[in-house]
Amino acid sequence: MNYGGIEAGGTKFICAVSDESLEIIAKKSIETTNPKDTLKKVFDFFEPYKLVALGIGSFGPIEINKNSELYGSLTSTPKKGWENFKLLSAIKKEIDVPIHLTTDVNAAAYGEWKHGSAKGLESCIYLTIGTGIGAGAIVNGEILSGFGHPEMGHIGIKKHKKDKFNGNCPYHSDCFEGMASGPAIEKRYGKKGYELADKKEVWQIEADYIAQALINYSLILRPERIILGGGVMKQKQLFPLIKNRFRELMNDYLSVPDLDTYIVPPILEDNAGIVGCLQLAVEYK
Ligand code: ADP
Ligand code: ZN
User: Fold this and answer.
1) Ligand nearest to the Cα of 192, by number
2) What's the pLDDT tens digit per position in 210-254?
3) Which CATH number is correct for 2-104+274-283, 3.50.50.60, 3.30.1180.10, 3.40.630.30, 3.30.420.40?
4) Which of 17, 142, 217, 276 is such that its CA lies 20 to 30 A from the CA of 165?
5) Is 232 in the pocket of ligand 1 (CB under 6 A)?
């Protein structure tokens, strides 16, 4: 039996077909342009396969509350052409199978929880630091959700005293995402993150912001593990800097797991999202 997964991102849609054990049968990356052209390519990809169910992890913000009239619609996304787009109904029209929809980071958290760095635990957070910052959380073995999905990238943080940058979030300027996303780094220094690899201060400031966020998540959710993914986290020197700053800021207040097992990279690397989507398809068929 074939299961489908779509990791719908602002730069690319990753589509995959697998069997029940998540063995990948086919996979394709499709550039995100406008909804019509992008989805046409998505449907062409799935056309030869008879799917039993489909799991979607989408960029957002997207309404994932099934009780909402807007369920399945992208809402205030800054991605041009996609604002208010009814993603779920557009896909359902062409691929009429049970569809489980969640956010891209929820799907990645689910993938890492079932098959990656948080396997066997009851709780974890998956945080991506890339073009944007977002997180999904597993709490008591379920994806955390309430009125809508969490938006852990837009929390307030204290500005580093050596930082002159005022942030680039269109809604809050200097929220966590506004100060620490890939584009924030690029705007602050006029260079891409990977071009700044040997600039110590860049990563000290970055680690301070990430550590502050992790302190907040730890205080609010007490997860067993926090997984850090996304393009910016390819700078592996961030991990020890984040752990040191986390230790300083926590100042022995809370006990958390040993930091080397608490703050970790995703085992599934860039596949966390698509694995999560396929897993959701298999489970929620
Ligand atoms: P997206 O968030 O769009 O899904 P990524 O997670 O790859 O994609 O994040 C892209 C962002 O991460 C860009 O701002 C890019 O400059 C930054 N980035 C990608 N690779 C690196 C790297 N090796 N070092 C630092 N920053 C990086
Ligand atoms: Zn913000």
Assistant:
1) 1
2) 999 999 999 999 999 999 999 999 999 999 999 999 999 999 999
3) 3.30.420.40
4) 217
5) yes
CA of 155 to the centre of ligand 2 (A): 7
Confidence of residue 142 (pLDDT cuts 50, 70, 90): very high
According to the model, what pLDDT value does residue 246 have? 98
Looking at all shown ligands, the one closest to residue 108's CA atom is 1
pTM: 0.97
Rounded CA separation 78/76 (Å): 6
Ligand 1 center–CA 182 separation, angstroms: 6
Report pLDDT for 77. Answer: 82
CATH for 117-266 (3.40.50.1980, 2.30.110.10, 2.40.50.140, 3.30.420.40): 3.30.420.40
Where do you find CATH 3.30.420.40 in the chain?
2-104+274-283, 117-266
